[in-house]
Amino acid sequence: MVVHLFRRKDGGGAARSVAPTVAPDERIYAIGDVHGRYDLLIPLLKRLHDDARLFSDQRRPRFVFLGDVIDRGEESRLVLDALSALTADPTDDMVLLLGNHEAALLAFLRDPVAGAAWLEFGGLQTLASLGISAPRSWTDPAEKIRVRDALGARLAPYASLFERFRLYLRSGDVVFCHAGLDPGKPVDAQDETALTWGHPRFLVDTPVPDVRIVHGHFDAADPVSRPGRICVDTGAYYSGVLTAVRLDAGEAFLSVRAGSNGA
Questions:
Q1: More confident residue, 139 or 16
Q2: pTM for this structure?
């Protein structure tokens, strides 16, 4: 889907009594917005793997990144390196979901003038982590093209990683995405904008009957658990807290905090 960029210079229904759960053979760890916090990502992954080893049932662990792994924080390149290694390991079942920051980066690669807004809401930090200087002029299109070409070259080793990004994952009656969805459309008919940027009618307790949505994007001091949605974005890039949720027959939140082994 995106390799060439790097080479360039469910319906209504009555509420049911049983809460939506993931597939009976899966135990899913959904990880909130990393935003370049490699220092938090590594200890959180260790904690999740340690947690998964506590279970002796037949559920297999899956690790789902809810998008926005890059930007804002200072170590996006190291995050990309870590995700490249993790996704290459066949012993780990890793799923990468597209966030609005990844979508904005790809838009900048397609058109560095029209997509230049990415630079101003986290892109500059990603450029710095990759050793790319910021535009010397914000009004000169040639400077934005220069930055785009340098970014494409630096991201070429990660082309296969970016190919893995998908818009959503469904397990049982739980849907994982970055920012939510349009409650007026079936899950399989959602558009990228709603899934990556959100929808004005999404932030309610039960946006879609009979389905639970697990998402990030809407940062808060604590994870949010509602009957129809869970949000695990705890603002890692500024709070120093990175959070995941474990979903099987129930739910549990696991976090790490900067300067400690867990929270």
A1: 139
A2: 0.92
